[in-house]
Design brief:
Elements lengths: L8 E4 L3 E5 L7 E5 L3 E6 L2 H4 L4 E7 L5 E7 L3 H15 L8 E2 L4 E2 L2 E2 L13 E2 L15 H14 L1 H12 L18 H17 L14 E4 L1
Antiparallel strand pairs: 1-2, 1-11, 2-3, 4-5, 5-6, 7-10, 8-9
Helix pairs in contact: 4-5
Length: 219
Amino acid sequence: MSSSFKKLHFSLTTEALSFAKTPSSKKSTLTKLAHIRAAEKVEEKSFGSSHVMQVIYMDDAGGSQTAYLQCKCVNELNQWLSALRKVSINNTGLLGSYHPGVFRGDKWSCCHQRDKTDLGCDKTRSRVTLQEWNDPLDHDLEAQLIYRHLLGVEATLREKHRQLSAGPEAGPVLTGPGGAPEDPLAQLLQVLQDLREAHRSNPAGSPPLEPSHVLELQT
């Protein structure tokens, strides 16, 4: 079954789940987010990998379809499950159950039911998102996401710091050991400046995140 996988580049935007042969290729829409009915893990024995997920969705004719996506690691798998569940959590027609296996031959590999249209033998987890997973996160990626978020609100932080510093109750700037400011906001701005300098001195660092994509996956 693993040989049937095709290497594709998936993109999750605010409107649809799309795919293409390469990141620069013209993308084809796999499904609109409003048509997603479930995003769940696939049991390891189905494809010989514990990093496979399935997206159950309705096609244009109203029929139920399933796409299987193989992720590189558990962190990527959980990020995709979390993202897809968040964008579809208010969809009508969400499934309450699903098959964690695949329909192979004449039966489901998980429960051995012979009806391919059977509703499922396990409960879906549409409200379980990344914050509730116990699997270890990619700390480098999480730190990078936080850094990019701080860059986006830096102007607001500096304006707030300016207002507080110029307020009627503003006093002399207190410094700790080594001359570092004790004001928490000033400390945060200083750390952000240090991080910016570190990124400038490391041209081989991570490229900017594509703003039009919520998430991308090569599978």
